[in-house]
Amino acid sequence: MNTFYLVRHGMKEKSVGDVKLSIEGIQQAKKTASYFENKKMKEIFSSPLRRAKEMAMYISDSTKISVREDIRLRERANWGGYTRTIL
């Protein structure tokens, strides 16, 4: 049986575009990485967005598994810190 873990990136900087993790997001990434440290995993995939790659790299450092970037995992709309209201 295979187990899949889906992890969302941590908190990001409050800006628009392809922003990096905030200080809080880095703390979340480190905590997440420690959770995965002793899990038996074979692969780590990440979207090409900076914050997702950063999150994946923390997990990679903890598990010693390289990250495979996959363009198909990129979100289709990158609103950054912008919240959209639909009427």
Give the topology.
Blueprint: H1 23-36, E1 44-46, H2 50-63, E2 67-69
Parallel strand pairs: 1-2
Helix pairs in contact: 1-2
Pfam families: His_Phos_1
Organism: Metabacillus niabensis
InterPro entries: His_Pase_superF_clade-1, His_PPase_superfam, PGM_Phosphatase
General description of the model:
- 32% of the residues lie in helices and 7% in strands.
- With 87 residues, it is mainly alpha-helical.
- The chain has a two-stranded parallel ribbon.
- The protein has helices spanning 23-36, 50-63; strands spanning 44-46, 67-69.
- It has a domain at 23-73.
- It contains two helices and two strands; from the N terminus they run αβαβ.
- α2 links the parallel β1 and β2 (67-69).
- The longest helix has 14 residues, at 23-36.
- In total, the number of strands is 2
Approximate helicity band: 25-40%
Q: Give the strand order of the largest sheet, numbering strands 1, 2, ... along the chain.
A: 1-2
The major sheet is characterized as: 2 strands, parallel
Mean pLDDT: 89
Q: Report the portion of residues in β strands.
A: 5-15%
Tell me the span between the first and last alpha carbons.
44 Å
Unreliable stretches: none
Give, in order, the helices and strands. Answer: HEHE
Taken from the alpha-carbon principal axes, the silhouette is globular
Radius of gyration: 14 Å
SS-based class: mainly alpha
Counting DSSP H or I runs of 4 or more residues, the number of helices is 2
Pfam family, one: His_Phos_1
Organism: Metabacillus niabensis
Protein name: Broad specificity phosphatase PhoE
InterPro entries: His_Pase_superF_clade-1 (IPR013078), His_PPase_superfam (IPR029033), PGM_Phosphatase (IPR050275)
